Amino acid sequence: MTLSPYLAVAVALATGACNSAPAATTEFFGPTIEPPRGLAKISPGMSVAEAMRHVPQLREDHGGVRDRLVLDSGVSDVRLEVRVDTGTVASIFAIVQGKGARELLTRAWGQPQIERDSLGQPEVTWESEATGWKVELDCIERNCLVEYVPYHVLTTDFFGAHVVPPGDLSRLHIGMTLAEARKIAPGPIDVRGGMPTGVDGVRQYVAIDDKRGVVRAIYLNLPPRAKSLIEEAWGTGFVATEPVGKTVLVWPDPTTSWRATLRPALGLSHDLAYDNYLPAAELFGEQPDVLDAVPVLGMTVEEVKRDYSITPQGKDLVLTLLPTEWERTATRITLGVTGGRVRELAFSIPFKAHPEARDTLFDLFRAKWGEPRPAMHDPKLLVFRDGRPRVEVREGPEHGVWKIEIR
User: Fold this and answer.
1) Per-residue pLDDT for 16 more than 50?
2) What integer is the mean pLDDT of 238-250?
3) Phi (first) and psi of residue 171, to 5 degrees
4) Alpha-carbon distance 324 to 282, whole Å?
5) Of 279, 278, 297, 301, nearest to 288 (Cα)?
6) Which residues share a beta bridge with 222?
7) What phi and psi, each to the nearest 5 degrees, are found at residue 182?
8) Is the same domain home to 257 and 199?
9) Around 158, how many Cα atoms within 13 Å sit in the side-chain half-sphere?
10) For labeling, which of 93, 191, 379, 384 is most exposed (least CB within 10 Å)?
């Protein structure tokens, strides 16, 4: 029979209480804020194998609870646990029998900080920049959970001067296969419930599209105070409206091709999502007779297939690029094929989420192709170029999009 987690803990603590080991004192927790009995050598994101190398006394829990390592505490009323998610350390806990943990920890470390968490609930913590650990105390039912979390103060340095995900997340990208991503960042990939970054209040997440087996999203969950720090680091983000009608702040960085989007999350917290984009200026470029990012006009189908990832769509082909800075979905370019060669490009550049981008894009078109003229048969159709290739642009105002054809 498999015991529930709470029942298993209760049984283990009750069993420990009957042996001859003494109860925990301030000496057990020590004068510094860090995990006891060598557990400070491990941290979330570490593999189970690595954790057991650092702390050989760790063993699998044989009390009926899976995904858990335990360590003999040496005292009768404390159970030490390392919780595991898909072979990766997810969290470090001490479970203290009874309700006296707060008094004991206060004698060891001084008065705790008492603040409100993102849901407005009281949060009792002790933290130390010197040791790099924070303790969160939560007394529930008959026991108190003491969670040890890596800790450093959140400052603008965490975000840096340019928009790029922290640590190994910067080496991932949306659409990367799960197998590739796991080689780079196994911790965030495998710990689906989010993993501490080591910076106060910041957890990192990699969401997976399980059906396709690819990375679906890369994001951080941040405390409320992070917004002002982001603005200090990156400047003021532009306001955009997402398809669901939610207002967000966006920071595109052309020097890194990463874009960060800050949106409301659970309670008072925020999610900061990262994705790659292709700046519109790089997509179009400056040459009037070619689309710089995909100079495929006139190429044979075989040449295009060799150099780009394309998918068939009837008689045409579709080439998929990263979104521009004003759009969330990929830019899809339809390649019109005649006689085995690409003779036409048709695509759209939306700007509905950021209306000011309409004029920015229009200025970009004029810089590349010159002043347009209305088509004789359709005044709403703008002809930017009559030569080869011919360039026509139409605005879809009801959809907030520029539609471009180059042939």
Assistant:
1) no
2) 87
3) -95, 0
4) 9
5) 297
6) 270
7) -65, -30
8) yes
9) 22
10) 379
Whole-angstrom distance, CA of residue 145 vs CA of residue 312: 56
Q: Once rounded to an integer, what is the mean pLDDT over residues 354-373? A: 94
The pLDDT value recorded for residue 396 is: 87
Q: Is 377 exposed, middle or buried (0-12, 13-18, 19+ CB in 10 A)?
A: exposed
Tell me the average pLDDT across 250-278: 95
Measured at the alpha carbon of residue 139, what is the angle toward residues 135 and 144, in degrees to the nearest 5?
70
Calculate the alpha carbon distances from 310 to 119, 333, 351 in Å.
Answer: 46, 10, 25
Q: Which residue has the tokens 């790659």?
A: 276
Average pLDDT, the chain: 91
Q: Give tens-digit pLDDT for 148-202.
A: 999 999 999 999 999 999 999 999 999 999 999 999 999 999 898 899 999 999 9
Judgement on whether residues 245 and 303 belong to the same structural domain of the protein: no
Coil, strand or helix: which one is 36?
coil
Residues 130 and 172 in one domain: no
Give the span between the Cα atoms of 403 and 396, in whole angstroms: 7
Poorest-confidence range of 206-220, 357-371, 388-402? 388-402
pLDDT in tens, 27-75: 999 999 999 999 999 999 999 999 999 999 999 887 655 689 999 999 9
Phi (first) and psi of residue 359, to 5 degrees? -70, -35
Nearest to 243 by CA among 353, 397, 114, 139: 353
Q: Say if residue 215 is in the same domain as residue 303.
A: no
Helices (H), 194-347: 226-234, 280-284, 301-307
Same domain, 102 and 200: no
Whether 12 shows a pLDDT value over 60: the answer reads: no
Boundary-marking domain end, from 150, 174, 204: 150
- Rounded distance between C-alpha atoms, residue 297 and residue 291, angstroms: 8
Check residue 300 and report its DSSP letter: B
Flag whether pLDDT at 254 surpasses 80. Answer: yes
Q: How far apart are CA 109 and CA 36, in angstroms?
A: 14
Q: How many CB atoms lie within 10 A of CB 190?
A: 20
Quote the number of domains for the chain.
3
pLDDT at 399 over 70: yes
377 and 314 in one domain? yes
Q: CA-CA distance, 383 to 405, in Å (whole number)?
A: 10
292 and 220 within one domain: no
- Domain end: 276, 310, 327, which one? 276
Shared-domain flag, residues 9 and 145 = yes
